[in-house]
Amino acid sequence: MLSTEHVPQFQWYITLCRRGGAARPEIDALAEPPADNRTRIPLKRLLVAALALVTVCCGLFFSYRAALGYSQYFGAYHDDGIYTICAKALAEGKGYRIISLPMQPLQTKYPPGFPGILSFAFRIEPSFPQNIGVIEAICSTLGISFLLGAGAFLVTSGRATPLLALAVVAASWLNLNFLSFLPVPMADIPCAAASVFALSLCEHAARKRSDRGQAGSLSSVLPWIVIGLALTASVLTHVMGMFAVAAVIIYLCLRRLFGQAAIVIATGGVVLAPAWAWAITHSATEPATLVYYTNYAKAAQYTASQGALPVFIARNIARGFTELMDIVLQFLKSLPMSSPTDAGAFTIYGAAWLALALGVGQELFKRGPRKLIAIWI
After folding, report:
1. Sign of the C-alpha dihedral, residues 217, 230, 176, 54?
2. 23-47 tens-digit pLDDT
3. What is the rounded CA–CA span in Å between residue 27 and residue 301?
4. Which residues pair with 188 in a beta bridge?
5. pTM for the predicted model, two decimal places
6. DSSP codes of every residue in 241-288
7. What is the dihedral of CA 126, 129, 130, 136, to 10 degrees?
8. For residue 112, is the peptide bond before it cis, meaning its omega torsion is within 30 degrees of 0?
9. How buried is 215 (Cβ within 10 angstroms: 0-12 exposed, 13-18 middle, 19+ buried)?
10. Rounded distance, CA 180 to CA 352, Å?
11. Whole-angstrom distance, CA of residue 325 vs CA of residue 350
12. What is the CA radius of gyration of the chain?
């Protein structure tokens, strides 16, 4: 007769017997955790719940404080003012225009998704700046929802335990840089939320299809249409949503799900092609100041004609090495280092980037459907 100490070695046998439907009381007895474990599980859940409550209370308090602090600097980011004025134009029925600029040009540079959401603030309270609190509440709600959704995704996808996911949420929510950015009307967080939602749907659909063993066949069209619409929402919120689209297409092609990739592309194309055609045909062509506000491609072309584009790209690549880690490793800013090339800073930055690369690489080379987030990163 097997004792409980042999359960880990014979777990495969227990699972096999259960799948076979055999009524084996001795097997069920072996599969039950010892009494000690049964008492520890509720205590662990209670601990996670208590820590979650503390995280939410602290997060809401500091989010409120961040909103109060940002109110006096509203519009200082430049883009936050553009998004807000476009939202005001939509709410007042003036179309998707930058009504604060001369000639009130059509906004053909930034997608309309986020200003469309923000326009509800002007429908609730049309007067500005009296509605700044409403604007900040909408932005903060989107950001907090993204954090909580990302934590839930980490758990449901098997990437993290509830305690680890809670640690990730807490470290992100209580990060000073995130709190400072949370109430700001910018499209980055809504775009990230839509992207992660689409990626999680795609990964879940791919996993279900693998479990059913239907390789090479279209099990259902509807889930892939929904994924395409979620990706479209990401792109219509921020142009960076195109990276999520690219990640999904690469992922599906690697898994030889070419039909599903075609459905996703077709679904997005139905919405995005007309939107892009409208933006191209209605974009301002002169003067150069209006082109900068209304057209990415033409603004880049103008920058290139001045010989500044290579410098701009090189500078962004150089800053990219330190910018992300400045956000994650805030304590580095307080260290007596004159530049990131100092030995201490370079070692810390290098170690952080190496850990990130190893984590992404590990997931990329795993078998199975769980590598889409790594492709996106």
Report:
1. negative
2. 555 545 545 555 555 555 688 788 8
3. 71
4. none
5. 0.75
6. HHHHHHHHHHHHHHTT-HHHHHHHHHHHHHHHHHHHHHHHHH---SSH
7. 90
8. no
9. exposed
10. 23
11. 10
12. 25
Residue that has been written with the tokens 């290098």 in this structure: 350
Asked if 288 and 302 touch (Cβ cutoff 8 Å), the reply is yes
Q: Which residue type does 331 have? A: F
In the numeric block, which tokens belong to residue 234?
């990401």
> What sections of the chain are H helices per DSSP?
11-19, 25-31, 35-71, 79-91, 113-124, 132-156, 162-173, 176-181, 188-212, 222-237, 241-254, 258-282, 288-294, 296-305, 309-328, 343-364, 372-376
Token duo for residue 15: 């699972």
Per-residue model confidence (pLDDT) at position 78: 86
- Asked whether the predicted pLDDT for residue 19 surpasses 80, the reply is no
The token pair at 100 is: 């604060």
The rounded distance, in Å, linking the Cα atoms of 293 and 277 is 18
Check whether the bond before 274 is cis (ω within 30° of 0). no
- Cβ distance 321 to 349 under 8 Å? yes
The single residue listed with the structure tokens 């500005």 is: 128
- Burial of residue 222 (CB within 10 Å: 0-12, 13-18, 19+) is exposed
Tokens representing 192 are 């990230």
